[in-house]
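Hi everyone,

Forwarding the result from last night's run.
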Amino acid sequence: MKEQAELTGRPKDDLKAMRILTAALTVGVVFFSVTMIFARQFAGEPPLGDKQLLVDKNALFIIVTTVAATGIVVARLLYRKRINSIKQSGKSLTDKLNQYRTALILYLAICEVVAFLSVIFFFLTGNFTILIITGIMLIAMLSKMPLAKRIAGELDLDWKEQQELE
């Protein structure tokens, strides 16, 4: 398995790259959602809209909500675990940013999978209520937008490291 490439720029450039990554993943979910909303409007009857399994749309909403809640809990736990590991590592700022990027990508990937799943269930059933989950996942993704102040606080960076980041 190929190891992930390390960030090689200045800390400011690394921070900018992480912001672009977060924005790109978030915009991808938004574009997919909008595309599926338009497709659903012009597609006629939802593929699974009349199936006995999905007749009770509230039950499906509960299932999707449970998956989303589980996804958020797992993403937050893994993120927090990795952040704590970074804080205790005592490594250089570049190494800390590399590890932070890994934690961020994992968090965003879990949120993105749940968001895509909710959009797919919306498309299959035509139940607009399921898109609430997509919105919540987008908010969760945007809540981790890498900002210098947020990273400095989460990683307990010293004054010198904060200056390099800003």
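Residues 11-39+55-165 form one domain.

Cheers,
N.
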